[in-house]
Amino acid sequence: MILNMQRTILLLVLFSVLTLCACQPSPRSKEKKTAENETPVVVVVNYPLQFIVESLVGPEYEVLNPVPPDANPETWLPDDVMIQTIQQADLIVTNGANFADWVKKLSLPRSKVLRTSLSLKDALITVPDFEVHSHGTGGAHSHAGTVAFFWLDPALMARQAEAIAQRLIEIDPQQKESITANLKKLKESLKSLGKKLDQLQAEFPGLHWFSERPVYQYLAQRCDWTMHHLHWKPGVVPTEHDWDKLKTIQQEHKISFLVWEHQPKENRVKDLAEHGIASVVLDPLTGKPAQGDYVSEMQRQLEQLEQFLKQHQLESVKSKK
């Protein structure tokens, strides 16, 4: 009798233990649930890519542009804490074409990196004299390089967006419908920039113009314009040789203006004016604008460029009379 009672009690204890264990989630299922509840992090290297990702996803994603507002996204380097944050992100969207020094210098998990330039292989522009510099006493020479500012052509920016959308859907298939709808809206908004460029191309066909460095080639190609970059470094006073080179190109192609990425110093504008070169600013928006977003700010700048070209054209006609 006592033995039977002991057996019964033992069986009840074992049953209770097994029931309790069955109700407890396994460590693996706990990890999975935690991972599902975490907000996916997408790291980007510049503002145009940030704009694309933010246009495609909602609050279920965290979009991280680690570059401080006052830093140059091409040369900025992260500290140790930010490096860890970047490496732990769910997706790292890079531009490609050697844009952003930190991408080349950090050890990034390849499975997490999306290089958007790979979707544009057929459209990439290579400049034979991309960078002119000298090493020690070796004399000046140049290196070929790919122009990285793809987003200045709205059609290429749309292709970057398509590549990003595809990867986001692979990460979270449940968001496919939402991401696809947002991609359609984004591409529609970019069409307004394309229409503006069509208008500029029709109004000012065959333009030749200067820039300090290779930045605007994709925009120029979109409008069938021609860029001539001078390799002038910011903050460095042009030499007599630099001015002679400008004059030679200026006379050969009848160039009368230079497009700046940012507002130039007054003395530089004055020096150029004395050489018959007017100045206009077109910020490529590698950093977030103070107002608006990529589309609205680029639209404003293209309208500003149109007004400059009309005024400049009018002044040129007057000077010839």
Automatic annotation (TrEMBL):
<dbReference type="GO" id="GO:0030001">
    <property type="term" value="P:metal ion transport"/>
</dbReference>
<keyword id="KW-0813">Transport</keyword>
<keyword id="KW-0175">Coiled coil</keyword>
<feature type="coiled-coil region">
    <location>
        <begin position="176"/>
        <end position="203"/>
    </location>
</feature>
<dbReference type="Pfam" id="PF01297">
    <property type="entry name" value="ZnuA"/>
</dbReference>
<dbReference type="InterPro" id="IPR006127">
    <property type="entry name" value="ZnuA-like"/>
</dbReference>
<protein>
    <submittedName>
        <fullName>High-affinity zinc uptake system binding-protein ZnuA</fullName>
    </submittedName>
</protein>
<comment type="similarity">
    <text>Belongs to the bacterial solute-binding protein 9 family.</text>
</comment>
<feature type="signal peptide">
    <location>
        <begin position="1"/>
        <end position="22"/>
    </location>
</feature>
<keyword id="KW-0732">Signal</keyword>
<dbReference type="InterPro" id="IPR050492">
    <property type="entry name" value="Bact_metal-bind_prot9"/>
</dbReference>
<dbReference type="GO" id="GO:0046872">
    <property type="term" value="F:metal ion binding"/>
</dbReference>
